[in-house]
Amino acid sequence: MDTFLHSFWQYAYLFAAFATVFAIKWLNHPSTARRGVITGEIGFALAIIGTLLRKPTPSDPSGVVHYTGILIAIVIGAMIGAPMARLMPMTAVPQFTALSHAFGALAAALVGTAEYYYDFPAAPSGFKMVALTIEVLLGFLTFTASLMAFGKLQGLVPSPPITYKGQNFVNLTFLAAGVVFGVWPIVTAAPVWVYPAFVLISLLFGVMFILPIGGGDMPTVIALLNSFAGAAACAMGFALQNRLLIIAGALNAASGFILSVIMCKAMNRSFTNVLFGAFGQVQEKVAGKQAARPVRSATAEDAAMLLVNAQKVIIVPGYGMAVAQAQHKVRELTDQLVKRGVDVQFAIHPVAGRMPGHMNVLLAEADIPYDRLHEMEDINNEFSETDVALVIGANDVVNPAARHDKTSPIYGMPILDVDKARNVMVIKRSMNPGFAGIENELYYDPKTLMLFGDAKSFLSEIVKEVNAQAPVHA
Ligand code: NAP
Q1: Cβ distance 136 to 198 under 8 Å?
Q2: Catalytic pick from 396, 417, 419, 445?
Q3: Is 220 in the pocket of ligand 1 (CB under 6 A)?
Q4: CA-closest candidate to residue 11, choices 58, 42, 46
Q5: Range of the domain at 166
Q6: In what order do the strands lie in the sheet containing 448-452?
Q7: Ligand 1 centre from 435 Cα, in Å?
Q8: Which region among 93-97, 250-254, 304-308, 454-458 has the lowest average model confidence (pLDDT)?
Q9: Alpha carbon distances (Å) from 420 to 153, 155, 308, 398
Q10: Which residues make Cβ contacts (< 8 Å) with residue 356, sequence separation at least 6?
């Protein structure tokens, strides 16, 4: 029994490594996502228990010596983390993800720093120092960059890109100085001030990296920072010779990077454009000039008439649905229409909302069956056979300019072809633009009806009208 307890951590790490792989696999689809989360949680709970039971031996000095500090840290962490996770609104997930990356990265950087000073004044050397340098650089820069991302999304830091002349030069100079201070202790014994200077530059670089990026691009940047935090953890695994950290950190780094590439592709933007394109500035320039062109608006009663008389309706949710928290009303409307024999499907654009999977999560929360949710590529050619495309708080992801207007900032972004439906109805509060800050010609299309109002209230009206107007015939 004693031997088992002694080597329990090794089994726990092995299980946790498999659990991470399966968790990522299952998180890939809404129907298996819960299983993925639970598997990941069990894997890491076991890994933590295994680590706590690990005792130092003469052949392996790694292990827990005192529990008091660890227990205090667990209690403080749980007291902050648990209420945050419970009370956080769905629309605030991007900024809270940024906050959790910030703390994860800070932990990696602090462990690296402790390891660096472990035998002070002697410093680690060789491969260990290389791993520590990567860990500390990525850890500290991800910490401040994630805090900045949190601040921009939470409105604590101005959201538009902050740019100035020669910014790229200044940033590159900082990066070069960071590389010099980082490489110095690797190649030769460095003076005592070099390591603190390296830490300071890493922290400052994180802030400077985020300044020129607009708040709207933060979700993509957060995915990239997730990747950095994973790479820092992976480097920490090499420095501490901890295989679980290497595996989980590498998986985290790869999945975060792949996610940010997918997001860039779905917006038809390059990495360089997101990181250095100062994209939010477009929003400011164009947002002001609203052309006074006529649009057709309609009432909830008109909308209900059209919907109950349709055979097929495709609902396109967007960021506005999330802001209005209208998903439960969407579910009520869907139920009422399905009862009346209408075929109701959902078209999900990969970057609808402000984070990947935003719409899937909200619709799942409202118990809308997964089999009604379709990815853009799967449903796009169904719009031409659809009686009504009902767009709820989506804007850029249905803007036909992306197909033909070469001057548009979203030109080339794949969109949902709602304009091919027989009728289009758009619920939004005004003619204001969406994230990209550009007008949407869909609203001026003669077959489009604008339903002006908050998504939740307007949908409530429509549901009432549907109930009042049409007897169930299914
Ligand atoms: P969008 O283009 O930002 O448009 C959202 C629309 O919702 C706005 O036009 C707004 O119009 C409306 N709205 C806001 N509050 C509302 C409310 N309470 N009730 C009704 N309508 C409301 O959103 P999207 O079509 O979902 O496109 C997402 C955009 O975010 C894309 O440009 C994408 O590239 C970008 N983005 C997404 C991600 C991601 O991972 N999902 C990451 C980075 C960037 P009113 O103000 O007139 O109501």
Answers
A1: yes
A2: 396
A3: yes
A4: 46
A5: 2-83+91-276
A6: 373-375, 343-348, 312-317, 388-392, 423-428, 448-452
A7: 6
A8: 93-97
A9: 34, 38, 20, 11
A10: 219, 223, 259, 262, 263, 350
Q: Say if residue 306 is in the same domain as residue 450.
A: yes
**Cα(206)–Cα(209) distance, integer angstroms:** 5
The atom number, within ligand 1, closest to the CA of 433 reads 9
Domain annotation covers residue 284: no
pLDDT of 463 reads 97
- Co-location of 135 and 263 in the same domain: yes
Q: Measured from the CB, is residue 279 less than 6 Å from ligand 1?
A: no
Rounded to the nearest angstrom, the gap between the alpha carbon of residue 31 and the centroid of all alpha carbons in its chain is 19
Residues 11, 72: one domain? yes
Within a domain: residue 289? no
Residue 152: name the closest of 272, 256, 280 by CA.
280
With a 6 Å cutoff on the Cβ, whether 353 touches ligand 1 is yes
Q: What is the mean pLDDT of residues 78-97?
A: 86
Q: Greatest CA separation found in the chain?
A: 84
Structure tokens at 25: 């696999």
Residue 367 three-state SS: coil
Q: Is the residue at 286 inside a domain?
A: no
pTM of the complete model beyond 0.90: no
Distance of CA 57 to the CA centre of its chain: 42
Half-sphere exposure of 256 (CA within 13 A, CB side): 22
- Cis? peptide before 121, omega within 30° of 0: yes
Percent of the chain with pLDDT over 90: 69
Q: How far is the CA of 318 from the centre of ligand 1 (A)?
A: 6
Q: What is the CATH number of the domain that holds 345?
A: 3.40.50.1220
Same domain, 18 and 148: yes
User: Could you tell me the two tokens for 218?
Assistant: 């933060």
CA distance 47 to 11: 9
Q: Is 138 in the same domain as 15?
A: yes
Count of domains in the chain?
2
Residue 320 CA, ligand 1 centroid: distance in Å: 5
Is 304 found in the same domain as 264? no
Closest CA to 313 of 290, 269, 346: 346
Does the annotation count 343 as an active-site position?
no
For the cut 70, the answer to whether the pLDDT of residue 288 exceeds it is no
Q: Which atom of ligand 1 is nearest to the CA of 429?
A: 48
Q: How far is the CA of 322 from the centre of ligand 1 (A)?
A: 9
- Does 197 lie in the same domain as 318? no
